Structures are given as C-alpha cells and as structure tokens.
Amino acid sequence: MKVSVVVCTYTMDRYDVFREAVESALAQTYDPIEVVLVIDGNPEVYDRVVAEFGQHENVVVHNNEENRGISYSRTKGAELSSGEIVAFIDDDGVAEEDWIETHVESYRETDAVAVAGYVAPNWVAEKPAFFPEEFYWLVGCTERGFAADGEEIRNGYGSNVSYRRDVFLDVGGYDVNTGRKGDRHIQAHEAPVGIRIREEYGKGVLYVEDAVVDHTLFEYRGEFRWLLFRSFWQGFSKRVMEVLYPGAQGNETAFLKDLFVRALPARVKRTIGERSTEPAKEAVAIIAFTGAVGLGYLYGLTKRDVLREEVDPETEATST
C-alpha cells in the first residue's frame, strides 16, 4: 500500500519549519512512501525546494502558476500523487516517525476510507496561562474532549489526516471556497471533504490518537489579540460552511453546552478553591473567544460575497 504525503507551502518566511515537515515525512518508518511538495505560486521557494529535495527519487515538486490557496494546493498534490493513500501534513508540522505506519495499520485493520490523528501543540514559547485546552482548535491542535480513540468523526485537523486517494478525488478534494488564501482567513477546509465522504460513502473519518503530528506554534499564536482575530474568522468560516452545506453543521451546540455547563463553572470553582488567577484568566478567554466567534458569524451574515468566485482550472505549471 503506497502512501503519498502532501506538504504545501507558499513563502520563504516559513521555509525552516517547512524543511522540518518534509524531513519528518522522508524519515518515516513506513515504505513505500512518496512525498509531494506543492509550492503555491512562489518561484523563489520552488527553486529552493528543487535544489534541496529534487534529487530524491520519491519526491515530486510542483509550483502553482499563481497563488491559489491551501485548498487548491492540497487537491493538486493529491492529483499529482501516485499512492493508494494520500496523507496531509501542514508546513509547520513535524510527524512522529511511525505516523504513516499507524495510518496504514488503520486502513489494513478496518474498512476506513479516511483517518485523522492527534495533533499535539509544540509551543515555541511557553503556553499562555490564559489559553484553555478546549480552544486548541484555534491553533490547529486537538482540543480537550475532541473524540475517543477509534471513533468516527466528521473531520480531523489538516496537519494530520489521510484519505484513500480515489475516495478523496471522487468527492472533489478540498473546496476552494474554504481554507486560507491571501487576506481571507477562512478555516474549516477539512469539513467539506468529510461531509461529502459521509454523503457519498456513508462513512466518517476514523480518529486514531496514536498517529501523532507535533504542530509548531510560533510565539504570535499565543497572543490574546491574535487568538481573538482567529476566533472571529472561525465564526466567519462557520457561516461559509452554512452556505455551502446547509444542515451539515458539526457539534457546535454540544461544544457550547460543555463550555458553559462544565468548563466555565470548573474554572470558577478552581479560582475560588485554589485562589489562583490562572483559571480566572481561562474563564475570561473562554467568554472572549466564544464572543469573537459569534461576531465573526454575524459578520458573515452581512456579507453577500461570503463565497469566493469559482476559478477556471489552472493550466499545468512546472513540476519535477
């Protein structure tokens, strides 16, 4: 069972962490493996990648003719792949050496068509004292209470997910209306794939917590202001999903109930019992981030152009 690992990047500013991601893919214990590197319309990055990794027989390098966004780039990577399984890792992720082996075991032992693993936070600076683990999804990591091992879920996180390639392409890959592109910080690009797989194949994404990717979290990701900004765009993204896939929303109601019935009261109790400021800060963050998500959703309701304009298929760009 050959596996293709797709890694996308777009700027020299992230090249060092991108290199770590690629090297972790090449260092996997599993074989046969192919690594597909998609550069999103940056000739400088493309030339550097070709010089550094182009000599590997199992590496494919492609440069989009222009910046097309993460969703287009990932689907392009799957199209260029030759593996039966296509796996995705972010350019700031570092996979454990048995990452792909664990994904493959899940396909061999079950009838899964998609597998998602655990995304662990790797803070460059110290984790902010105010940041609650229930909101790790804001930084692309697996949050507290996400899912049980072996549970079928709607979707996992983009830095640790794989699909049977034919299934992924059959449902159209990633939706170009989701995922970050330019100054549009739309999230939730994994959800449409999971929704369409459920509709077409009647199956969810299998969650396997032993398949681990460490997600590098730069210092700015721990800034309160940035997290509020991220929360706002998460809310906007929920509106995009509502327009694209009416009636196919996730477990937002259950999440909110857990926050206000369990998480907040627990922080208040700890603040009083332990006379500590940390749980109080987390309580404030929970309220602030939830409010920002709501504002982002309301902002989406006011926008007539909530979706991106569809684009014509790209003519073939340089690949090696």
Structural write-up:
- It is a single chain.
- The chain is an alpha/beta fold.
- The chain has a domain at 3-223: Spore Coat Polysaccharide Biosynthesis Protein SpsA, Chain A.
- It has helices at 15-26, 43-53, 70-80, 99-109, 165-170, 190-201, 224-244, 252-274, 278-302, and strands at 3-9, 33-39, 59-63, 85-88, 93-95, 114-123, 152-153, 161-164, 205-217.
- Helix 2 (43-53) links the parallel strand 2 and strand 3 (59-63).
- The longest helix has 25 residues, at 278-302.
- It is globular, with a radius of gyration of 20 Å.
Which properties best describe this structure?
GDP_glucuronosyltransferase; 320 residues; transferase activity; Glycosyl transferase family 2; Spore Coat Polysaccharide Biosynthesis Protein SpsA, Chain A; transferase; disordered C terminus; 41% helix; 9 helices; alpha/beta
Instruction: Name the CATH class of the domain at 3-223.
Output: Alpha Beta
Tally of DSSP β-strands: 9
Structural class: alpha/beta
What is the average of the pLDDT values? 90
The fold-level CATH name of the domain at 3-223 is Spore Coat Polysaccharide Biosynthesis Protein SpsA, Chain A
Overall geometric form: globular
State the low-pLDDT regions, or none.
309-318
- The CATH architecture classification of the domain at 3-223 is Alpha-Beta Complex
Q: Taking Cα atoms only, what radius of gyration do you get, to the nearest Å? A: 20 Å
Strand proportion = 15-25%
* Main beta-sheet annotation: 9 strands, mixed
Q: Share of helix among residues?
A: 40-55%
Span between termini? 23 Å
The H-and-E topology, N to C, reads as EHEHEHEEHEEEHHEHHH
Number of helices: 9
Q: Give the CATH H-level superfamily of the domain at 3-223.
A: Spore Coat Polysaccharide Biosynthesis Protein SpsA, Chain A
